[in-house]
Amino acid sequence: MLEAPIIRFENVTKFYDSETTVLDNINFELERGKFYTLLGPSGCGKTTILRLIAGFMQPSSGNIYLNGKLINHVPANERQVNTVFQDYALFPHLNVFENIAFGLRIKKLGKKVIEEKVIEALKFVNLDGFENREIAEMSGGQRQRVAIARAIVNDPEIILLDEPLSALDLKLRSEMQYELRELQQRLGKTFIFVTHDQEEALAMSDEIFVLNEGQVEQNGTPKDIYDEPINRFVADFIGESNIVAGTMVADFRVHIDGNEFDCVDQGLNPNEKVDIVIRPEDLEITSVENGKMKVKVDTQLFRGVHYELSTYDEAGNEWLVHSTKEAEVGSSIGLNFDPEAIHVMRLNETEEDFDKRLESYGEEAYAK
């Protein structure tokens, strides 16, 4: 018998008033013991999904299941779910031990059991010996570990994390990404992590759900989402992308601005208008004579491990290039790319809007 998904959303809609729909008929299933990330811009519904799972709100319609059991109206304190909030929500008047022990005391566990569980949780987050420390005396990273320890001490099935790294500086944020991922693997729990940072999502997740305007645009592994975005929104939101208008000539052949190129995509209609994605790191600088396309260099920035070039072709399309080679600003260069670097996407706009977008490019950018 197949194990039921740990979480299942079935036609879930959430609205706050008659004109504000936050989630629009959401359907998905989450397996046990994986690290999931809900990724998307502000207001797309990420935190609302967490709050629905936690029991802080109920769906306007549809059903939510935990281990196959309907939980729409199950109170938050009766769900095997704990949340790490963005501001950590620690009690400033309690020390580390008392913050972590708070939920255990509500359950009226024995003093010895509470002490054992708190000490074990502190070891898990590398804070053993900090039990008597005051919250005000701790750094941002240490406070976050306390919040995580408080979440795991009750042995929940699911841990929800609502942008818990957003208040940390860049270096500490990177360190905590590794720590959270390692912690999830050691615990074997289901983590559901909310962020609007695509690099964070790519680095930490088993599976990513990309949300936009209350709907799931695409879900899959980080590699799937990055290499095979389903539409323009996902391609533009996940990583840096060159997205240009094109036409599918036939299987394995695409037309871009007067030129035809080999690709690896098939199954679209001949002469179907499409969007083309080529990642900046897949473009190779060469001479104009040897390049598949000719571009003019507009700006160049040094990013430490590579140069970032903003270039334009004769049709006005911008091509962002990541390269270890330098190029002179204002010069013309050639760009090469493999057929595997071209990703073809069906339009998520009308052909009329597509044509208007194509007309708007013009040649102004190339001329400057």
TrEMBL record:
GO molecular-function terms, A-Z: ABC-type putrescine transporter activity; ATP binding; ATP hydrolysis activity
Keywords: ATP-binding, Cell membrane, Membrane, Nucleotide-binding, Translocase, Transport
InterPro entries for the chain: AAA+_ATPase, ABC_SmlMolc_Importer, ABC_transporter-like_ATP-bd, ABC_transporter-like_CS, Mo/tungstate-bd_C_term_dom, P-loop_NTPase, PotA_ATP-bd, Transp-assoc_OB_typ2
A single GO cellular-component term on record: ATP-binding cassette (ABC) transporter complex
Residue intervals of the ABC transporter domain: 7-238
Pfam families, alphabetized: ABC_tran, TOBE_2
SUPFAM superfamilies recorded: MOP-like, P-loop containing nucleoside triphosphate hydrolases
CDD domains: ABC_PotA_N (cd03300)
Xref: PANTHER family: SPERMIDINE/PUTRESCINE IMPORT ATP-BINDING PROTEIN POTA (PTHR42781), SPERMIDINE_PUTRESCINE IMPORT ATP-BINDING PROTEIN POTA (PTHR42781:SF4)
Name assigned to this protein: Spermidine/putrescine ABC transporter ATP-binding subunit
Organism: Psychrobacillus insolitus
